[in-house]
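C-alpha cells
________________
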Amino acid sequence: MLNEQAEQSFVKMPLAGLLSWILPGLGHFYLGHRARGLVLFVTITATFWSGVAIGSVQGTVDPTERGLWFAAQMGTGGNALMALVLNRITTKEVRARNQKPLVTDWVAAEVGVHYTGVAGLLNILVILDAVGRADLTRWRNRRASETGGFS
C-alpha cells in the first residue's frame, strides 16, 4: 500500500507542476486544493493581464526586445503564450495595413512589463508549491513508516 501511494505521489509531482505552469492554480486544483487553486488563478492571471492592459500587448510581451522579461513572463505559461500570439497577430495586422506600430507611453509599457514579469515569477513559486504539496503525501507516509505510525 505504501509503495502504491509513493508511486501515485511520484506521478502527481510533475503533473501538478506542469498543470500549474499551463494555467496558474490548476495544479492545486488537481491536487484537491480547490479554493487555493482558484485564489492563485485569479491573482496571477489578473496581475498578468492587468500588465498587458496597462502596457499593451505589443509593448509588454516582446521576446526580441525584452528577452529576460519575456523569460520571467513565461513563468505564467498559457497566459504568456496567449499574449505572445496576440502580439504576433496585432503586429502582423499593423504591418499588413502599412501603419506605424502602436507605440505606448514608455512608462506605461515599463509598468506593464513589470506586472507581467512579476506574475510569471510568482507563478514559479506556485509551481514549486504544487510540486511540494504533491510530494507531501509521500513524505508523510515515509515518516509514518519510520516512526511506526507515531510522529
Observations:
- The mean pLDDT is 84.
- The chain has seven helices and no strands.
- Residues 75 and 125 are 9 Å apart (CA to CA).
- Residues 2-147 form one domain.
